[in-house]
Amino acid sequence: MSTPKITKQFVDKLPSPETGQVFYRDPVLKGFAVRVTAGSSKSFILEKRIDGKVKRITLGRYPEITVEQARKKAQEFLGEIATGTNPITKRQRHKVQSMTLWDVWQDYKAVKCDLKPRTYTQYEYYFNGELSDWKTKPFASINRDMVVKRHNQLKERLSPSFANNVMRVLSALHRFAQVQYEDDSGNSLFPANPVVRITQLKGWAKEPRRQTILKQHQLPIWYAAIKHLKFNTGAANDHVAADYFLFLLLSGLRRNEAATLTWNNVDFQEKTFYIPDTKNNTALTLPMSDLIEAILKYRLRFKTQDYVFSSRKAGYFANPKGAIERLRADSGIEVTMHDLRRTFITAAESLDISMFAIKQLVNHKSGSDVTGGYVIKNFERLREPMQRITDYFKTQCQIGANDFE
């Protein structure tokens, strides 16, 4: 039995199928149909061969859209198809062209769900800060000239590294958009990344690598200030901060890797500590030297929660800014927490410890070093070099034998 012309009366009387969906095709306007689902939803569609394939375009739901409105939309689409225009691609492009930078960022977060929380926080910091005036702009309107101009402004007003980082984040968002948003034929709806213009103009700011370390003659002065910080400042968390800073120097860990160390990842029987979440996403097990073991056992006396270096506010020791300032003021030495990691690596190299062992101790990837890929990581092999590095710092810092008893 053929379907009569689709009218309001006809659509109103259509029953819902028990399962799935049923199509009722209009005999007058070819390709025009109404779809009814088991959930009693009714919507108008247009079926037409486009670019050699039969495509189905949803025109709207009934009764939000009337039969007459749906029929008119179907006729408009058929007119576009007849003149060689793909209405699906046209609609996709229109939708994407209206997306703002903030819209793309929301999709980025939903898709890139395996990134570390700090990465999302850093990205959002830029979007709410130096790029806040672009948040509500159509993403497609952010062009090459705008990018170059903003990059130059940031270099002049803030710092070269900050300017570069902001643009790297924007470039990451564009690379995501290039593959995330495609038309019906698989072509990117954001084919051009405007940040590439900075590369083309050789405009990236030079970022001199920081080389600061604790020099040998500074080590006893710095450690004396550590002891003062631990026992004499009176600040609530300075006794934790002092042990944390020394632990960074002796372990070579990155600040967040050490700050988030938990007691369940400390094994006093094996004399190891385990870092599951690292910058390069490779879990790390390190042996304790005698002094690292002493520091950890000392902290165990004051255990109040899961984190070894705990803070009452943040749970773990996330931002010891005040303690750093007091340590600098007392020692007269300008040193960052990452400088302590560089000092560890420099000391290891000066002791003629093999580069493979140093890379494993600080969890650096071997990169293109093919031979390094065959070296099996074994924390027992690292125990001797770890102890040698500790012995060096014990001597240079003049750490007393009973400082952690």
Automatic annotation (TrEMBL):
Pfam families per the UniProt record, alphabetical: Arm-DNA-bind_3, Phage_integrase
Record Gene3D superfamilies: 1.10.150.130, Integrase, DNA-binding domain, Intergrase catalytic core
Residue span(s) of domain Tyr recombinase: 206-387
UniProt entry tagged with the keyword DNA-binding: yes
Matching PROSITE patterns: TYR_RECOMBINASE
Keywords: DNA integration, DNA recombination, DNA-binding
Keyword DNA damage assigned: no
Lineage top rank: taxon: Bacteria
Similarity comment text for this entry: Belongs to the 'phage' integrase family.
Protein name as it appears in the record: Tyrosine-type recombinase/integrase
Organism encoding this protein: Rheinheimera marina
